[in-house]
Amino acid sequence: MLFSDRQEAGRRLGARLAGLAGQDVVVLGLPRGGVPVAAGVAAALNAPLDLCLVRKLGVPGQPELAMGAVAEDGARVLDERVLREVRVSPEELARVEERERRELARRAERYRGGHPPVPVAGRTAVVVDDGVATGSTARAACHAVRARGAARTVLAVPVAPPDWTARLAGAADELVALATPGHFFAVGQFYDDFAQLQDEDVVALLRQHRPAAGPAEQVDQEVRVTAGAVRLGGRLTVPAGARGIVVFAHGSGSGRHSPRNRFVARGLNRAGLGTLLFDLLTEEEADDRANVFDTPLLAARLTGAISWLRGDPRAGHLAVGCFGASTGAAAALWAAAEPGVAIAAVVSRGGRPDLAGERLAHVRAPTLLIVGGADPTVLDLNRQAQARLTCDNRLEIVPGATHLFEEPGALEQVTGLARDWFTDHMAAATV
């Protein structure tokens, strides 16, 4: 045997990677077996430990044979050779992928307990597993880490097949293996103790290595938010000791200067919640009215902004909520239905949640719908949308308020309702 157990493998791998000590490094273990190895590496490098959640796509009837893998950030890698050989239909592949993405979402909640992922943007990300077999899982992991903005990616394992660098060429900036023995059949053959780990083991290791909270000083400044291929103007406010941060999804083409959303944001700031107001559309895009109702586009921008936020050291440690107005509410709920996005709570103000369509049934974030009592059409649409929600949810009606909540005291009621909803649910997410 090459290794007595995963702990020994982690210590030895950490020694091999000692040259990274002192750099801005985050170590990401692949659950479950890669986490104790990653813990040893993190300890050796004095670096934070987190997860890179990836699930193998097993061939129907042969689950141990990987036809690809999916990651929590939406990345997918397929092994076209295996797909051709076993003749898996697109429908079979879709069913397997849907099942594994549900499991990814479950594991993200189970392992992190509401804590956001450790930011990797601009850092060296060391992706660690207990070994490489086919390489599809490792490739998906590296792809996901790059998508989160890592400056450099290192894939490190104790053991791998002799041809592993050819299989994974281009997956990471650097590939490190302690051993590449011949006659490689399975990772477990090179461990004396290769016992299956439980979820509780992963949770305990993360708890031991959880990084300290971010800076205590207040932040209030204009920012440029990277969301996919565009950079959008925004305003980031993080009170000292913030208990969470709320990302605003504006509707009807409005942006970060919306007076109503700025009013609500100030109320949330006074309650100790951070806020990010940003433009979902560029100026050119906003000129096309159809973009205002393009829910997938708006949701993608929102998801990208959340990913950017989690890479910011001033706010990346905070639980994230979403406040959506008008069509922005549909974008917030659409994003909240994405596996692995980990939104702690959603509030909709005069929103169009119905535009999230079938995604409503997949929302897991506690959701508050706020509608004016004198806005009958939107109220009816919210009631229909609420009937499709399966998460913890509530509909609040502000008496006498019209769609824009311009009546005296109406916006104050919205702010109070949103403040209480976010405060309650973000506190639960950070326990």
Question: What does this molecule look like?
Answer:
The structure is a single chain. The chain has helices spanning 6-16, 34-45, 80-86, 90-112, 136-147, 164-167, 199-209, 259-270, 283-286, 289-292, 295-310, 327-336, 376-388, 410-429; strands at 25-29, 49-51, 54-59, 62-71, 76-78, 124-128, 152-159, 174-179, 219-227, 230-238, 245-249, 274-278, 320-325, 345-349, 367-372, 393-398. It has 14 helices and 16 strands. The mean pLDDT is 88. Helix content is 37%, strand content 23%. It has an 8-stranded mixed sheet with strand order 9-10-12-11-13-14-15-16, sandwiched between helices. Strands 2-1-6-7-8 form a 5-stranded parallel sheet, sandwiched between helices. It has a 3-stranded antiparallel sheet with strand order 3-4-5. By secondary structure, it is of the alpha/beta class. The chain is elongated, with a radius of gyration of 23 Å.
Order of helices and strands: HEHEEEEHHEHEHEHEEEHEHHHEHEEHEH
Sheet/helix structural class: alpha/beta
Mean model confidence by pLDDT: 88
Enumerate the strands of the largest sheet in spatial order, edge to edge or round the barrel: 9-10-12-11-13-14-15-16
The description of the largest β-sheet is:
8 strands, mixed
Poorly predicted segments: none
For the record, give the distance between the C-alpha atoms at the N and C termini, rounded to a whole number: 41 Å
Helix fraction, binned, reads: 25-40%
Strand content: 15-25%
What is the number of strand segments? 16
Helix count? 14
Mass-distribution shape: elongated
Q: How large, in whole angstroms, is the Cα Rg? A: 23 Å
